[in-house]
Amino acid sequence: VSVCFNYTSVPFTMKFNLFSLVIFGILRLSRCQNQFILGFNKKSCDTLEPMYVLEDYTHIKLGPNNEEKSGEELKEPIRSPTRYNTRNPPVEIKIDFDQYRRNREYKIRLEASRFFDGYMLQVQGKRDGNRTYVGSWKSAKNKVPRLISCNGIKNAGLISKKRPVQYGNQTFYWRAPSSNAGPLRIFVSIIFQDAYFILNSKEITFNAYPLSLKGCGKSMSCFRYCKMEPFCDADETEYMLTISEDPKNPESVMFKLGGKVNGP
């Protein structure tokens, strides 16, 4: 006997009588097939549009291991997913920064007023008019989100796993690139029931401090003032000064000065 069900529809008040135990025994031995839900994969990178994918029941042990089938797509989708407008979205992107620095790690939250069914996150920039994927997402301790590569960029996307569960508030961590990638925005695609919507953050600009120390002692002279120790990392300096030849005018010298600004 093969029985498939959506466990989220089982009432919490269900009495575990003998009949219930028999049913659950059958469910544990059955294989759920062709149970498609909206989800994300690498093919969603360019559009942030979800696709119909097989549900992954393996983590709740409802039957034999069907992990091999969990990534399959429906060859002929019954229908295309509907895209909602974002006038009053049940999810918001919350960040406490409007600039990013090299190699810094930043916290990004999704705050939800209603439960939702899946998500995909990216940080995008534009270089020469083309969309780029910037920085890298960090793996969460609970391993619920899944890291994916987009167009060869490792960990450029973060997606929810194909599971029959719903999500509330979520916290993620993103690591900024090692160089100036220009202005960026955070994009998130949210699956809500049988549709989806796409949100984006305000523009995030690059903060050049601390100055890059690449080439110090070779192509430029570098000075830094450390408050407590004779030597300190670039992030810990009170101010830094670099002197180098101006690449646009070899007869000129270029000075760059960066430092911390105290409160008003």
UniProtKB/TrEMBL annotation:
Domain Reelin as annotated: residue spans: 87-194
InterPro entries referenced in this protein's UniProt entry, alphabetically: Reeler_dom, Reeler_sf
Positions of region (Disordered): 64-85
Segments of skewed composition (Basic and acidic residues): 66-78
TM ranges: 12-30
Keywords: Membrane, Transmembrane, Transmembrane helix
Name assigned to this protein: Putative ferricchelate reductase 1like [Xenopus laevis]
